[in-house]
Amino acid sequence: MATARPDKxxxxxxxxxxxxxxxxxxxxxxxxxxxxxETAIRVLDAEGLEAVTMRRVAQELGTGPASLYAHVSxxxxxxxxxxxxxxxxxxLPEPDPARWQEQLKELAREIRRVYTSHRDIAMVSMGLxxxxxHLLDVAEAQLALMRAGGVPKKIAxxxxxxxxxxxxxxxxxxxxxxxxxxxxxxxHAYFEEYFGQFREYFAALPPDRYPVLTGMVRExxxxxxxxxxxxxxxxxxxGVASYVEDExxxx
Length: 251
Prior knowledge:
Layout: H1 33-47, H2 54-60, H3 65-68, H4 75-87, H5 100-116, H6 122-125, H7 133-148, H8 153-179, H9 187-203, H10 211-214, H11 217-221, H12 225-241
Helix pairs in contact: 1-2, 1-4, 4-7, 5-7, 5-8, 5-12, 7-8, 8-12
């Protein structure tokens, strides 16, 4: 009666003649919420927000969509987690009452820089009440700057929302414009060329019907994307500062 031989792994054997050696198997990274969010952000940066689906992220991780739901409830939560992770890149200032207006502008520029470096992530922020820890850190920093400058609580509470809408809209609009640039072309150069066409169009409008508009073509089209952003930011911060009351100033 034949006895069964013990089952030995094939990896113990040498490579047969004419065959290529097998590569050692790479251990699969454990599936965690952090890994899911990081993968989703990679897809976002490469292809935009619409490409970020549970199915696509699962494919990138080498698993099925069902396995993601143990860590993320769905696409909406995934997007919020992505935004909060992106917000962790924002550098926050220590409030200086003497410089609060400039610090508020610096923080706005930093938020814009981070958001625009991640394609259309600002679309998640639009209409979202921040609850993630990093988003709350940003809101806390903005409010702390305004309060340090003597902005009343009610005004600061409304202003943080208004600033958020301005930053979201600017980032989204910039992404839309730059996405129109042909592959391989400098988006900033394309942006200027794109608006140059409208400069010619406005200049060709009938002045008897649009006397003010045709008389201001240069003023309407000369500023670049950064110039328009800086004007809007200055307008908002000056408006907030107009509500400062000395008696509200801490200390």
